[in-house]
Design goal:
Elements lengths: L1 H5 L14 H17 L8 H16 L4 H18 L5 H22 L9 H19 L13 H14 L7 H16 L8 H19 L4 H15 L9 H27 L5 H22 L10 H19 L31 H4 L8 E7 L12 E3 H14 L7 E5 L2 E5 L33
Antiparallel strand pairs: 1-2, 1-3, 3-4
Helix pairs in contact: 2-3, 2-4, 2-10, 2-11, 3-4, 3-11, 4-5, 6-8, 6-10, 6-13, 7-8, 9-10, 9-12, 10-12, 11-12
């Protein structure tokens, strides 16, 4: 009886709609990234989490079950669709990737002869990943990121160090400066090594070590996506076979992710809260180290050679990512477009970027029409809005959501708009909750009124 049940899941040569080992590996890794991203979804929707883990386990059993990754793409797409673009950067990236995966699948279903040229997918991965890394570093080229008192490198690295010291750590100005320049190098220079055969392997190794380090903090979810993207840069799509040893290592990698996902509720319940990200990230790191140590040891860079048509689409991907990320300098939002942990300020009057002066580049003035929140209903203290400035469009969007989320509350606040102080007893009865549909896409972070810009997501 048991043999009859397990036989369909035993190792076989992949066949059917998707059989290319490179695509099967990528789909399995993307499934793992989705599990890491939704590791705490059980708090909101236990059934959602269980279904996600089930399909992740199916991918773990064997990568030929590509439909399990597609099922999780469809499942998580329903969540992303309602949140985009007001999500973490890695969630926005996964949202775009899911759309591409499902689009290619539809093309394959409608035409079984549909085929992507060898080398094109890997080039798209390389060009896109280099562009993403570049802009995460580019936004950090500002005076406050290089200010050792407030730089975003302080909190992240101090938190990572606390794993080994078991007590709070404060970075010295010298160590802070080292991490500032190291971060710029890792994000703006090192990824270009992925573009050349001779440097690809070593660039990937250093980037993976960087993400394994971040994985020990609260960035295991982003590190899992980075592993998927880096693997996409390395795969030789001319190969039509995959050895059994590599399949075993993929299984182990996914097994650690599934274990981390299953263990998360128990970690949250029985382990000290500040230790949970370390343990959750450590489980992921063990799996990633196990796989990539094997993969890179047997890796040989390969490329199909320069072909203009195979560079045109990757170049278009670079342009689209650039437009998405650089919109912050013309006034169309400065959050969730790779500006995370950058200390960046984009108000027209006090831009701090070293290369771009928003007094000359700003086209839209949403940030210049703003509201200062002096006091906010104590029941909304988790918003941490008091003492901060918000563009009017952003405040209205948030206020509308507060009212929708708490229909029985008379939410009160004290605000300053155009030098006029207003005491609001019930937001529901004011025009401050009137929004336009496009406010959702003008995603601005809160603004610090004065002084060096503290680190914000």
């Amino acid at each position: 009886m048991f043999d009859k049940f397990i036989r369909p899941f035993q190792s076989k040569t992949a066949a059917g709609l998707i059989s290319h080992p490179g695509y099967l590996m990528l789909l399995a890794f993307f499934n793992g990234a989705l599990l890491m991203n939704f590791h705490s979804m059980y708090r909101k929707d236990l059934v959602f989490s269980l279904v996600l883990i089930f399909f992740g386990t199916v991918s773990m059993i064997h990568i030929r079950h590509w439909w399990a990754a597609v099922a999780n793409c469809l499942l998580t797409l329903t969540y992303f669709w309602g949140k985009f673009p007001r999500m973490a950067n890695h969630s926005n990236l996964e949202f775009f990737i899911e759309i591409v995966i499902l689009g290619l699948l539809l093309a394959k279903v409608s035409n079984r002869n549909f085929r992507i040229p060898d080398g094109l997918i890997s080039r798209i991965f390389r060009f896109s990943l280099v562009t993403v890394y570049f802009y995460t570093g580019f936004h950090k080229l500002n005076t406050d990121f290089f200010n050792s008192s407030v730089s975003c490198v302080n909190d992240i690295n101090a938190y990572a160090f606390s794993i080994f010291t078991a007590k709070p750590v404060t970075l010295s100005p010298q160590l802070s400066s080292f991490f500032q320049y190291a971060t710029i190098f890792i994000e703006m220079v090192l990824p270009f090594g992925l573009l050349w055969n001779k440097t690809r392997k070593y660039s990937a190794m250093l980037l993976l070590l960087f993400h394994l380090y971040l994985g020990l903090t609260v960035f295991g979810d982003f590190s899992a996506l980075a592993c998927f993207l880096i693997l996409g840069c390395l795969i030789d799509f001319e190969r039509r076979s995959i050895d059994s040893g590599l399949i075993r290592h993929i299984r182990v990698y996914l097994a650690f992710i599934v274990t981390a996902s299953i263990a998360k509720p128990f970690l949250d319940k029985y382990i000290i809260a500040q230790e949970v990200p370390h343990l959750h990230g450590a489980l992921f790191n063990f799996g990633a180290l196990w796989f990539f140590a094997y993969y890179l040891r047997h890796y040989r860079a390969a490329d199909t050679g320069p072909r203009f048509r195979q560079y045109l689409i990757p170049a278009c991907c670079c342009v689209l990512i650039s437009l998405w990320s650089m919109k912050t300098y013309i006034g169309l939002g400065n959050s969730a477009n790779l500006t995370m942990f950058s200390n960046l300020v984009t108000e027209k009057s006090r831009s701090n970027h070293l290369l771009i002066d928003t007094r000359k580049t700003k086209i839209f003035k949403f940030e210049e029409d703003n509201i200062l929140v002096l006091k906010l209903d104590e029941r909304l203290q988790k918003e941490k809005a008091e003492g901060f400035i918000f563009p009017v469009t952003e405040f209205r969007y948030r206020a509308s959501n507060w009212v929708k989320a708490h229909p029985d509350w008379a939410i009160h606040c004290t605000i300053v708009h155009k030098s006029d102080t207003t005491v609001v007893t019930d937001l529901r009865k004011t025009g401050l909750i009137r929004t336009e549909w496009w406010y959702r896409y003008l995603n601005f972070r809160k603004i610090q009124p004065d002084g060096p810009c503290q680190c914000l997501w």
